[in-house]
Hints:
Layout: E1 20-26, E2 32-38, E3 45-51, E4 57-59, E5 69-74, E6 80-85, E7 93-98, E8 104-106, E9 113-119, E10 125-132, E11 135-142, E12 147-150, E13 157-160, E14 173-180, E15 183-191, E16 196-199, E17 217-222, E18 229-235, E19 246-252, H1 266-273, E20 277-282, H2 291-294, H3 304-318, E21 322-332, H4 334-345, E22 352-356, H5 362-368, H6 371-380, H7 388-393, E23 407-412, H8 420-432, E24 437-442, H9 452-469
Parallel strand pairs: 19-20, 19-21, 21-22, 22-23, 23-24
Antiparallel strand pairs: 1-2, 2-3, 3-4, 5-6, 6-7, 7-8, 9-10, 10-11, 11-12, 13-14, 14-15, 15-16, 17-18, 18-20
Helix pairs in contact: 5-6
Amino acid sequence: MEVATKKVTHLTNNTAKGLSNIGAIWSRDGKWLAFTQTDATGKNTSVFLANVSTGKATNLTPHQGEQTFFATDISPDSKTILLTSNSGNGYENAALLDVATKKLTWLTTGKWEVRSGAFSPDGKRLTWTTDEDGNGEIVVYDLATQKAQTLPVAKGINAPAGSESAFTRDGERMLFTHAGANSPNDIWVYDFASQQAHQITHSLSGGIRSEDMVEPFLVHFPSKDGKWQISAFVYAPYNAERSGKHAGIVSIHGGPTSQTLNTFNRNIQYLVNQGFFVIAPNYRGSTGYGKEFIDANLHDMGGGDLEDINSAADWLIKTGYVDAKKVAVMGGSYGGYLSMMAVTKSPERWAAGVPIVPFVNWFTEIENEDPDLREYDMATMGDPVKDAALLKDRSPINFVDKIKAPLLLFAGGNDPRCPKTEAEQVVQAVKKRGGVVEFKVYENEGHGFAKVENQIDAFTRIADFLKKYVPPEKCGCNIYE
């Protein structure tokens, strides 16, 4: 858009092809725009470079098969694009793309997920971040010496601040964000000369101290079929004894192409502070562990990934802290779906379930959801006609009669992804057969709850519900007692 005249010129138009263009990046001279083009699944992407004056765009990463390329910055001289791709070894790695030759030069070749960042203003250095089993580290790379330095900052999720270069103009300092299990997201400055980091903002408020927060243990266990090593973060209340009497919660992230990270999670911290053990697994289909792991639940959602959820519950019980009869399952969106699959497919295992904005019926979900998400669901799970038998088996609404656990469901009145009619189907079916179910719709919310008053209300309800049906042992762990 020309700001002065407000004239808009379209550089791309892929509506008919079902493609999307994202992440536009200006060159320093304003003559070029790099962007990433993606299909509905997000598993096949390409990097394009558009001439702003002519509107002509060139695909710089032509390829065969499913591969991803995501542009994150253009060098100051416009000759090189910094990008992330899994085309090398199936894991996301950082690379430099020569605009003239379309040749890739790999900066990393490891098996931890990497996200490329940005060039420094002088073009001498660049950044990327690594995701090592849920911990994010910042790496600064010197193009002249080809040496990489990992910034010596606290464990958690660290990333350069902002969408552009986080370096100061002289390149001597860097702005970055840090979030850890005991600290919400804050802005820090790293000084390269002193190799010290200085905190700028302080987000903890209301008299809460970082030492009152619980830091999780990173644990691993094999999948039931032996194909995968599953990672999980385990939160244990302070002062808990190995009595075998504690209550536990399996907390399932959404997505499924997402990841539980070692970052601040106020909802989990609140529940742990009430005395609950919490395990948050990165089940198959999660990001962070390579393309093969992401694709492991392709056309098998509610199958192998559900077994990983069951294994997480088993691990929690085997610690000797948690009572096998006092384990609840909880999750939002796709995590809400897996929560419903858990209480219907493994009814004996669960003492309570808290599905948050779930979908429960593949047929009605695909019929009523946002069109873009419909395309994704059909590409990753199946067609309602061709794959009707699979979708029927993986729709928990068809097995409500198996549920034994009391349920607490939440929905948003304006949810375009998992419409409230999904949760309503469960509530009606459970009530019809005389089961225990509580239901709350936030009519002024969409997919998930944005308003603070609704967030507080929801998790107060969750804590009260869980205390009623899976009461935690007294452990002196509640800082408000």
